[in-house]
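#structure-requests
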Amino acid sequence: MKPAGHDAHFLSRLLDVIEQDVIPLTERGVASGNKLFGAALLHKGSGELLLAETNNEIVSPLHHGEMHALKKFYELPAAERPPTDSLIFLTTHEPCSLCLSAITWCGFDNFYYFFSHEDSRDSFAIPHDLKILKEVFDVEPGQYRRKNAFWQGFGIRDLIAQLEEPPKTLLVKRAQAIVARYDELSDVYQSSKDQNDIPLN
């Protein structure tokens, strides 16, 4: 299971992790007042899950899904912590500037996201990623370099759209079910977000 392949088996495994590992954590996180962003680390060779996490901003506004996953990763004993360039970095939502920087500083050479920055703004009413990129870095939506000297970033649904049939249709249906589940989680978060003190809620 090498990331360079991006075949149906690889993409199916990414959806497995979102469905089976990240969403259950996110359900509990959203019920506690956190945003619905999550992340996971997988071994490149086997696709085996190393860890999954979700947003924990009610503890610290720095604990985005990706940041919380990295926190847990570096809490592992050194002997159990593989080199970051041997791992797949999976995120439910395209990483914000904070998480992009953290991924870079930690030495990951890839990340795969399910929802885009525009989805975060338009579908989930969380526009901060795009606003920060524009206001702080003067970067227009979608204009940061997803392929650079440090890593490559890939949209999972974009990769699914490039597949041949029949696996394409099967994975599109699974992706649609994930979208529907996150729509439900978004409703829960939006209905309760004024009850927490997350600075950018």
